[in-house]
Design a protein that fits this description.
The structure holds 2 protein chains of 2 kinds. Chain A has 17 helices and no strands. Chain A is an all-alpha fold. Chain A has 2 domains: 123 residues, no CATH class; 155 residues, no CATH class. Among the domains of chain B are: 176 residues, 3-Layer(aba) Sandwich (Rossmann fold); 63 residues, no CATH class. Classes of the chains: A mainly alpha, B alpha/beta.
Chain lengths: 343, 440
């Protein structure tokens, strides 16, 4: 071999030598960007403190990720943006009146326990943000189920800054519906049509980032357009939950309001942003439809028969561990496997 | 073109084509280098034994190595000169392989070939000319053509497919060949049809080569048909359109079963370059000792479609084209999806070399890979319906032997899975490792 041609050092890794260029980082940062409109809107619905809570949540998730990886002697991968997404989602599913430090505890639970103790990105069984919320509900049940705020309508975004939770707390539409029925709901929130409009835009009591069906759907459509998610899981959840609410949600059969059930509570946020999490959901279209339907059924079951007014969080957490089984049961269709091959 | 484009339904990707770098460059004959290294195995099968000794004088086109028993194809002297050494040369995949080095006689006159009337030639004569010419499938694995064109009598072949898809990015070899010698390619198709005793031939070309499609259609019209039905079929631009099983499905709708061969579904596939080589062998009695090679990528001073003698070292090609450019990070023999990265420019051109790519840092992605995030994109991209994600996870967990359940051995390593993987996982590498371990 000629010595002068050997001085060049080239990479000789295995083919393919080119890549599509859509990395985990790009996916995570795009998802984060698509979550910005609901956050900005939340300032005008619940006040400026939503920004603080979200910032604390994101910062503590990122910090928890770095510390967890250091503790576990793994490479620190905070640049991939996945902890930022978890932080955003965790903030979006807490009430807007909680103390700003509360997400810190949720972040430790989400990132250290639910993500890194189970192996890190790609290995977690449950959606980390939802585990964080479930933990907070168990440890701070009062704040997590009552720190709801009445939506602001006059741009007074500093209204709730510094005020105690008890002074301002209200009830979510699903709570009112569960305990006082449709009559109680219209008494408090106005006519059905007014509710459709207000709730769809985001003006309803609820968690920080879950109230605006409009902005969440727009974000979801963007992710759909980018090819980062598919329609199967969100549509399956929404159709199943809507249908079952219509059948069983009213005082008689077939009198429930499917639209209200979909645009109030965390159904849209959960369907688009949580149930589509790659790691904790199956990959094949038919498996996704079943996964989504399972979430829809469990959500309605919890909402109508359970102790909580809202059920999407636990519905997703209950379906998450089924994802590996669905993945095994539904395999891609092989091109033309040899006769007698293992399937 | 308003025709509906045929394609395969499952999987596939759309990588950036980068064909603009070299698609407008006319095929250029490179001057004969001072030395060539003729590898003794340039085909699928047993290696050749040398028929010459050191210091022998050989003429352009002489057989210098042949396979006495088993599957194989002869190799020829690509230049006139003296045998300098019978030793080894760097090989793109085997590190080192036996070769014959010939020192070129610069005074020698190029050999000329006169056309023969093949239409009166008996079938056996045509087949033996193909065998003597050492023709192999130059689009891929290098399967000896004279063997492929004599299928077992049980295989009722009814259609010949010519592969002009050239779906690998960068490569423009087949494109220029179809544009500049369409008559030879169609002539080769006619000869193969005669050998097979059939009349149906479809030439599949990806629709990103409209000029080649036009040229080929014109050549088909001009050729006297003799009852043969040769047609040019534009195909949708989608990688891996030129993969044998996918091409067969696109053009005929037939699916070759796993571990099966094209003649299981009554077709034979040849690359358009092989068809041209068949024409040269049968009509001109010219052996296969030169080859059009696309030289491309941002790392080469002057891209080209070069007609080079087989055995030409890559460093001579680089020198002829003005050297490499700064930022060169990877040299690939073949296309960027399935080609082999090589560590040295001492590697010689082989019969199956379709291109050499000089890729700079910004054309490739060398960042480290992460864990599988189970996005499932590889499952959507895999044209064979396999589960590259699972194979990768199993290999990392030390369970490579358990991966045949995911169709491991149906994988032909097209690279679609690794191309789309957002975690940049080296899935083809995992799969190769799994194949090695599972075979044991």
């Amino acid at each position: 071999m000629n010595s002068e041609t050997r001085q060049a050092i080239w990479n000789v890794s295995v083919s393919p030598h080119i890549r599509r260029g859509v990395s985990v980082e790009r996916i995570m940062w795009t998802v984060s960007a698509s979550l910005m409109p609901p956050l900005i809107l939340s300032v005008f619905i619940f006040g400026i403190q939503t920004l603080l809570i979200t910032f604390v949540s994101v910062a503590s998730c990122v910090a928890a990720e770095a510390v967890s990886q250091k503790l576990l002697h793994r490479p620190v991968t905070i640049r991939d943006g996945s902890a930022v997404v978890t932080g955003l989602l965790l903030a979006y599913i807490v009430p807007p009146g909680v103390p700003f430090w509360m997400p810190i505890l949720g972040a430790v639970m989400s990132i250290y326990v639910a993500k890194h103790l189970l192996g890190g990105i790609g290995f977690n069984i449950f959606n980390p943000a939802l585990i964080g919320r479930a933990f907070l509900v168990a440890t701070f049940p009062v704040a997590m189920t009552s720190a709801w705020l009445i939506p602001i309508r006059d741009l007074s975004i500093f209204k709730y800054v510094g005020s105690g939770v008890d002074a301002v707390s209200t009830a979510t539409p699903l709570y009112v519906l569960k305990h006082y029925g449709m009559a109680g709901l219209t008494e408090r929130f106005g006519s059905t049509l007014k509710m459709y409009g207000d709730f769809f835009l985001g003006w309803q009591p609820g968690s920080i980032g879950e109230t605006s069906a409009l902005f969440l759907i727009l974000g979801g459509l963007y992710l759909l357009y980018k090819g980062y998610i598919t329609w199967h899981v969100p549509v399956s959840i929404i159709v199943t939950a809507g249908f079952l609410t219509w059948v069983f949600g009213g005082e008689r059969y077939f009198t429930g309001d499917p639209i209200l059930s979909v645009i109030s509570g965390g159904l849209i946020l959960g369907a688009i942003y949580m149930a589509t999490d790659y790691v904790t959901s199956p990959t094949q279209p038919s498996a996704k439809l079943i996964f989504g339907a399972g979430i829809g059924v469990l959500t309605v079951l919890i909402r109508l028969k359970g102790g909580y007014p809202e059920g999407i969080c636990y519905a997703i957490l209950l379906m998450n561990p089924l994802a590996p089984a669905l993945e095994t049961w539904f395999r891609p269709k092989r091109f033309a496997p040899p006769k007698g091959a293992m399937k | 073109m308003n025709r509906e484009l045929l394609t395969f339904p499952k999987g596939g990707i759309h990588p950036p084509e980068h064909k603009e770098i070299s698609e407008h460059l006319q095929i250029e004959r490179m001057p004969i280098p001072a030395e060539v290294d003729i590898l003794l195995q340039q085909h699928f099968g047993a290696p050749c034994s040398p028929l010459v000794k050191k210091k022998d004088i050989v003429n352009e086109g002489d057989v210098i190595g042949t396979v006495s028993a088993g599957l194989g194809a002869s190799v020829h002297a690509s230049v006139t000169g003296t045998v300098k050494n019978i030793g080894t040369s760097p090989h793109p995949t085997s590190v080192k392989a036996p070769s014959i080095t010939i020192l070129t006689d610069t005074q020698a006159q190029p050999r000329t070939y006169g056309p023969a009337d093949w239409k009166a030639m008996p079938r056996d004569e045509m087949l033996s000319r193909i065998k003597e010419a050492g023709i192999v499938g130059i689009g891929g694995a290098g399967f000896p053509t004279h063997v492929k064109l004599a299928p077992p009598p049980a295989a009722k072949v009814d259609t010949l497919l010519l592969n002009g898809a050239e779906c690998e990015p960068y490569l423009t070899t087949d494109h220029r060949l179809m544009l500049e010698s369409p008559g030879d390619v169609v002539g080769g198709a006619s000869i193969i049809l005669r050998i097979l005793g059939i009349n149906e031939c479809k030439i599949g070309i990806e629709a990103n080569k409209p000029a080649a499609i036009d040229a080929m259609e014109k050549a088909v019209k001009e050729a006297s048909s003799n009852g043969q039905r040769i047609s040019v079929v534009p195909l949708k631009v989608k990688y891996p359109q030129g993969s044998e099983k996918q091409l067969i499905q696109s053009l005929t709708g037939r699916k070759v079963p796993g571990f099966g061969l094209p003649f299981d579904v009554s077709v034979i596939v040849q690359n358009v370059g092989t068809a041209k080589a068949v024409y040269d062998a049968v009509c001109l009695a010219k052996p296969l000792y030169e080859k059009v090679v696309t030289i491309s990528g941002k790392g080469i001073s002057r891209p080209a479609n070069l007609l080079v003698r087989i055995g030409t070292r890559l460093k001579d090609i680089v020198e002829y084209l003005g050297g490499t450019k700064n930022g060169l990070a990877k040299v690939v023999m073949g296309g960027p999806m399935m080609g082999f990265a090589i560590p040295t420019l001492d590697v010689p051109v082989m019969k199956t070399t379709s291109g050499v790519l000089f890729l700079t840092e910004d054309e490739i992605d060398l960042s480290p890979h992460g864990h599988c995030i189970r996005c499932g994109w590889c499952l959507d991209a895999c044209p064979m319906g396999l589960s590259p994600n699972e194979i990768g996870v199993y290999v990392e967990a030390g369970r490579a032997e358990d991966t045949s359940q995911f169709g491991l051995f149906e994988c032909f390593e097209c690279g679609c899975c690794a191309f789309v993987c957002p975690a940049r996982r080296p899935l083809v590498q995992f799969i190769r490792l799994a194949k090695m371990k599972a075979k044991k």
